[in-house]
Input
Amino acid sequence: MNLRILTLALALSSGALTASYAQHKVSQQTSAESQLQQDFLRKKKAFPRGDLFRIFDSSLTPEERSALTFLYSYMPTNDLIDRDGGYFLENVRSSLQARQEMPWGKVVPEREWRHFVLPIRVNNEALDASRPFLYNALKDRVKGLTLEQAVLEVNHWCHEHVVYTPSDSRTSSPLATLRTAYGRCGEESTLLVAALRAVGIPARQVYTPRWAHTDDNHAWVEAWINGKWAFLGACEPEPVLNLAWFNAPVSRAMLVHTKAFGRYNGPEEIIGRTPTYTEINVIDNYAHTGRVDVRVVDAAGRPLVGVPVEFKVYNYGEFYTVATKTTDAKGSTFLTAGQGDMLVYASKPDTKGTYRFGFEKVTFGKDKQVRLQLKYSPTDKINEDLLITPPREDAKYPEVSDAQRAENNRRMALEDSIRGRYVATFLDKQFEGLDARGNWKAVRTFVEESKDQEAAKSLLRAISAKDLRDVPLEVLRDHLDNTEPLPQFASDKELSMRYIFNPRVANEPLVPYKKYFRETVPADLQRSFKSSLEALRQWCQKEISLDKDYNPLDYPVEPIGVWKARKADSYSRGIFFVSMARAMGWPARIDGVTGKVQAYLDGRWQDILLDVARPAVAAPQGTLRLSYQDNGIIDNPKYYYQFTISQFDKKGQLQKLSYDEGDNGLEQGTSWAKTFKDGAPMDAGHYMLVTGSRLASGSVLVNMRSFDIRPGKTTDEELVMRRDTTAVAVLGSFDAENRFAYLGEAKDLTKAEQFVSPEEKEQSVLTTTGRGYYILGVLGAGEEPTNHALKDIIAERETFDHWDRSLVLLFKDKTSQSRYRPEDFVGLPTKTVFGRDESGKILSELVTSLKLRGGNLPVFIIADTFNRVVFYSQGYTIGLGRQLHQVITALEKEQCTTPTQTCTIP
Output
């Protein structure tokens, strides 16, 4: 074949391939559209009441109709029921406007636009009018920028308005977060995703469900830039993308994932699909990974089909499920995860309704295949010790020039000042001793205009701290003015205020529903509900059909929405029952420990069984009494931090019991001595007790043991906190003669302006602390890891005050010092002093001596004035206060407070 013929043949072949590829793409698009229409019709058929799809009878452009069809096909039930079509049409039009006006609108593919721009919802936040607002606020700010520059700029705008602070797990809406001027990571990332999507940039909230090397979790943001996803810390701007304080922690993550509404078919590994979303695994973007194939078999070794397999990470005293996958026809499934340890767990009820379960520890990156046998029954007693090891750290950092860093610092300081001026407009940040932040006007108006101001104040004290910051005025008025406790409860003011007047039931959006129910519920039905909660229970069973498909994440449907649609998931039905009961004057709640729907009847809380024919009953209970012997380090273990208890449900799945104290999101659990030492009431059933001792390396010494609670009986079990008895030598050195700029004692520095002192002087660590042990920390002020660390230290103040040694906290420079807000960290140990590492020598020496990663703050050490370091921590470490507590206790137990002795540190 000559060259000319060969060239012609190749051209024809290339054209055929191109045409074939184009036909394939068209075929794919046609198939996707066909599937979309099927999903839409299926959804419409599932919700026949309430005229929920009437927006499609409006005059719509083809683009609007297509976008609305996608949203309605895959939005969760609460959005479908609680928001009308006009709301979604307004958001669709705003999205189409951004697509038309923003320079990158034409380059964003349809797949990324539909799944990561069009959806309004990000997390479990209340939907608000943020999209048009954010578009108008940001469109001029990002015009003329590249896509990458725009992403960075939007994050600066977010930091200008919001800074990190911990709180409970309910996610505030973007506009509520802006009004408050701070939020936890889930709220900051929800805001940033909403802002990026508002200007047409594909964005998604990604998160590690739980860290492996420390407690807690974290959420951040990925943005799509010219075909690739890049990450950034929300409201924590850096000079470049793929850089955040969590580069090091996320390299130790076991799983990072996100959810995309709809049938997403991108390049990522799919963890699971539901009728509303696709869950995808993005751990490969952050860490070294391994794949483990799991084959589930019964007691006889036969493969089991359709069994949910839970992949669990140890975190907060429990094995927390981070992914669930179902076995195929061969009884197999798989997961890709970071190269560390997980517990793989599965259970299956047999034909008689008795479940069998099994679990195995697996190491990703080492184990390739695991055989998981369901060999245990509820009568089997488990008592097993495990060592759980997280992945090793191997962080990657992009290059940042000194000029880029300096400019970013300048902008962040300016943004802090802008936000500070806004926060200064709050009414001294408090009203009646309640910190309502940007919601102070609503709170003040509510009290001042109420006929019964004392009752108004009591209601404000009954709601949560976060509710105080974002509850609308009309909600407060509705629940105060339209609530009338039944006569038998009217005299019990505390019971009435917490469980009848209170608008908060669980994590649902707060709405003014009581006047609506009073005016809408037929009078005869109201009389029936007021005379008997059994009538309400039966009405819920008869009238509310269960939605088992379209709300897999249990996003709560508002009570009015349930009334109108007569359809809800079981969780939302429970919230509705409690809300209606309170509207009728009955005390009702969802129990914080078990999650059960309950009402206060005959002087006690009784379960309301909405899924069975029986009326309200008190579940048979026994008592759990835990004995504990001090292990030399921990004298009173804390729930969540060191142990948890979970009950096996009817399917053999573990449901953790909650014993919360406080609502700041740091999982403030009860203690062993307070709740379990003398016995705690507990429903009869089969339980698993998990304890864990976290080591400095991030590994955990775990003990798992099962037990039974029998009606009317006391079960005695031992709480075992394992201890690492390995002697740990000196870990490094630090020269106590190092000098720093002394700023003052914490007790004298309660406001930022007090750090500006003409008496500022240099002095050595030794001069500051005197001879003996001390704690020194270099802070990344205003950054989430440092905020967590200081809150942890405050929680352990009693330990530090008893130890009576100095805690030296150093800012790395004046920029860092300017970002510290003393008013947010009231309660630091008595002997806390502040300073500044003026030359950077202290941090540099710590990095060199302890082989730390430069720039990853905070850094904390325990050292003595003989220059020996016996403990160190760097970066994001939840529970730092407890770790310091343990080392201090070890020093005291081993009589090592005299630094001439050799210390053994567990």
Notes: The longest helix spans residues 3-46.
